[in-house]
UniProtKB/TrEMBL annotation:
HAMAP family: CheB_chemtxs (MF_00099). It is found in: Cytoplasm. It is an enzyme of class 3 (hydrolase). SUPFAM superfamilies: CheY-like, Methylesterase CheB, C-terminal domain. The modification 4-aspartylphosphate is found at residue 55. This is Protein-glutamate methylesterase/protein-glutamine glutaminase. The gene is cheB. It catalyses: [protein]-L-glutamate 5-O-methyl ester + H2O = L-glutamyl-[protein] + methanol + H(+); L-glutaminyl-[protein] + H2O = L-glutamyl-[protein] + NH4(+). It comes from Acidiphilium acidophilum (Thiobacillus acidophilus). The lineage of its organism: Bacteria, Pseudomonadati, Pseudomonadota, Alphaproteobacteria, Acetobacterales. Involved in chemotaxis. Part of a chemotaxis signal transduction system that modulates chemotaxis in response to various stimuli. Catalyzes the demethylation of specific methylglutamate residues introduced into the chemoreceptors (methyl-accepting chemotaxis proteins or MCP) by CheR. Also mediates the irreversible deamidation of specific glutamine residues to glutamic acid. GO terms for molecular function: phosphorelay response regulator activity; protein-glutamate methylesterase activity; protein-glutamine glutaminase activity. The active site is at residues 161, 187, 282.
């Protein structure tokens, strides 16, 4: 049975472009269009779509307000289609926090790569576990250093994709300011990662930044891979971030496999790997490399994943030593990387 999609965008040209991309996939049927939320509301009632693509900025009601109504009155998987502006990125991130399944960037300067992933994301959204959330503004969860935690020197590497915005906030917002050093590869359009890093930095106690080439990897810091480059660790003795714009790996740049593989080589047993919600298989082989190198490896469990894709593949190939629900991941990571716990053993 095909996935029924309603396309909502105020631009007729963009509605046709989105529809044309989706119609390339024989498993997807575009059942209707709407130019604004008022038209969309009627179309949703009449057509009962499986997935909605939604523009962030529209007349009569903005995409965030309409998303809130969808999630409250008729929960349906939503893919946000965003402009590559700072305002568009900020609104899209809020939408992902508040119930949207995933996002794609509208084509810019002839770059269609992210946009061409829309059919795959629509299929994943149709199978996702919808978890409606409130659109109330997120309050910063800033917490200071804690004497109960002291980093044991291990590096934490995290990979995520679809559903990763919410998952990363859930994990990092529970970290103290003196947390272990954390490196993250999250599948996200290149223009969104800086805004996401800034958002995380406001919400979390550690210093969160978009990684730059040559940055030292230090406790109390979280490094998010830019959306346009692979993130690796270089200089094992004094680890630093290394960025490079190589070929896509596992279909992605940044790739979780690239990050995990570099951590396996540079840190081995002095690391901990975590694979979160996401579609596809990126990160599974890299996490297996980490486990074989002596690292502890953790996967988000099926029940708490928006899309149980990446963690499932990693578990099936033996890369995941332990699966945990999202709500327990932060405490487990801190417990396993706490020097005080090791001293008591």
């Amino acid at each position: 049975m095909s996935v029924r999609v309603l396309v909502v965008d105020d631009s007729a040209t963009m509605r046709e472009l989105i529809s044309a991309v989706l119609r390339r996939d024989p498993e997807i049927e575009v059942v209707g269009h709407a130019a604004d939320p008022l038209e969309a509301r009627t179309a949703i009632k009449q057509l009962n779509p499986d997935v909605i693509t939604l523009d962030v900025e529209m007349p009569n009601m903005n995409g965030l307000d309409f998303l809130e109504k969808i999630m409250r009155l008729r929960p349906t998987p939503v893919i946000m289609v965003s402009t590559l502006t700072q305002a568009g990125a900020a609104a899209t991130l809020r939408a992902l926090e508040c119930g949207a399944i995933d996002c794609v960037a509208k084509p810019s300067n002839g770059d269609y790569h992210d946009f061409d992933q829309l059919p795959e994301k629509v299929r994943a959204a149709a199978k996702s576990r919808l978890q409606p959330r409130s659109l109330a503004p997120s309050e910063p969860v800033k917490r200071g250093c804690t004497e109960r935690f002291a980093s044991d020197g291990r590096i934490v590497a995290i990979g995520s994709s679809t559903g990763g915005v919410e998952a990363l906030i859930a994990v990092l917002s529970r970290f103290p300011a003196n947390c272990p050093p954390v490196l993250i590869a999250q599948h996200m359009p290149a223009t969104f990662t800086r805004s996401f890093a800034e958002r995380l930095n406001r919400l979390c106690a550690p210093e969160v930044t978009e990684a730059e080439d040559g940055m030292p990897v230090l406790p109390g810091h979280v490094y998010l891979a830019p959306g346009s480059a692979h993130l690796e660790i270089a200089h094992p003795g004094k680890p630093r971030c290394r960025l490079h714009e190589g070929e896509r790996v596992s279909g992605h740049r940044p790739s979780v496999d690239v990050l995990f593989g570099s951590v396996a080589r540079a840190a081995g047993a002095r690391s901990l790997g975590v694979i979160l919600t996401g579609m596809g298989r990126d990160g599974a082989q890299g996490l297996l490399d980490m486990r074989r190198a002596g690292a502890e490896t953790i996967g988000q469990d099926e029940a708490s994943c928006i899309v149980y894709g990446m963690p499932k593949v990693a578990f099936e190939i033996g890369a995941v030593a332990r699966q945990l629900p999202l709500g327990k991941l932060a405490d487990h990571i801190l417990r396993r990387t706490n020097l005080h716990n090791r001293e008591r053993v």
